[in-house]
Amino acid sequence: MRLPTLRRELEAEASPASALVARPPFRFPVVRTGTALEVAEVAWNAEGVGREAALTIPAVAACRDLVVGTAIACRPYRYRGDERLEPEWLLSRPDPSMTWAATLAGTIDELLFYGRAYWRVLDRDSEGFIRRARWTPFRDVTPETRSSGGSYSVLVGYRIAGLEGVVAPSDVIRFDGVQASVLETGARTLAIALELEGAARRFAAVELPAGVITNTGTELGEDEAETFLARFAERRRQYGLAFLQGLEYERADLSPADLGLLDARYHVVTEVARLFGVPVSEIDGSVSGHTGSMTYGNLTQRRAALIGSAVAPHLAVVEQTLTDVVPRGQAVAFDVQAFIRSDPAAAADYVVALLEAGLIDKVEARSMLGIPSSSSGPPDLTPGRV
């Protein structure tokens, strides 16, 4: 049985013919705690908003592009203690047919919208560690479980579209998001945003009258009224004015503001930004829900807020998941400092402050700014951590 996707479908069912039958009002299902997929499926059925529909909302597309674009700008690296290691294929190009940026973008996108992402293992080295893997779309992967008789089920493997049989769990890298998916928590917000976008399109497509003429004299027939209106419009185009006798003209000033569309759409932009954890100013919105109020913040502070609130949770998931598949004693991290300190003035002030405090020496300060410590060699950049 399919749940109605929109509220207007429910209202359409309440016809006079069915009014004689007592029918309990529709209530949205109470969602129990469960996996991200279970909760999201109920949200999709109740509100009817999927990823493709959500991305038609400009604010959602802007937040998604901002989070994903920031993530792929932070390069990953592998390290053991204080020693930085070669990233090898897993962190530079795990899929031979796809760039690292495309692989990470698909992973972060699905962590945003679905709360889970998958990589299928393609190759291992001589010691059995994963060397190559391919990002696989979330909808192409179906977990296969077996009941254990208790509160938990046993994961048997995965069915992947295009592959025969069940793929072993060890041949799939699963990224479990630490935050609830956008489609789960923002189903109502996204549905409201789609309704407002539809209302705005309907308003733009409808021809609104420039004014209203009221007959205060002898009543006119339909043909006479049509003839009068055509002559009235022609005289206004020809002379810029018109003569009325026994009639009153009132100008109509209907605008989107009269329908509340402007304030409502600005409010939705603010709510969508909060849904993604993106600072509102980053998508040209405002905390108050209208463009008239903006808070000041320099570039470094805004980018640090973006990393900390919107991007870092997803990067941490990728870091910890990939750390579990590299050899023991090694770890994976993303270099976010280069992105945060991309403002040259802010970067210089930051390094000078560390140098004056005695936390780094001059060679380390030059390396953090990308300046070679000597004329003979390249800079030895020190990456940051999430």
Which assembly state applies to the chains in this document? single chain
Element-by-element helix/strand order: HHHHEEHHEEEEEHHEHEHHEHHH
What do we call the CATH topology of the domain at 209-253? Arylsulfatase, C-terminal domain
Q: Class of the domain at 209-253 in CATH?
A: Alpha Beta
What's the layout of helices and strands?
Elements: H1 7-13, H2 36-47, H3 51-54, H4 58-73, E1 76-80, E2 83-85, H5 88-92, H6 100-113, E3 116-124, E4 130-136, E5 141-147, E6 153-160, E7 172-176, H7 182-185, H8 187-205, E8 211-215, H9 222-239, E9 247-251, H10 261-276, H11 299-323, E10 331-334, H12 337-340, H13 344-356, H14 362-368
Antiparallel strand pairs: 1-2, 1-10, 3-4, 3-7, 5-6, 8-9
Helix pairs in contact: 4-6, 4-10, 4-11, 8-10
Structural description of this entry:
With 386 residues, the chain is α+β, with helices and mostly antiparallel strands. The strands form 4 sheets. A 3-stranded antiparallel β-sheet has the order 2-1-10. It has a 3-stranded antiparallel β-sheet with strand order 4-3-7. A two-stranded antiparallel sheet has the order 5-6. Helix 8 packs antiparallel against helix 10. It starts with 6 loop residues before the first helix and ends in an 18-residue tail after the last helix. The N terminus and C terminus are likely disordered.
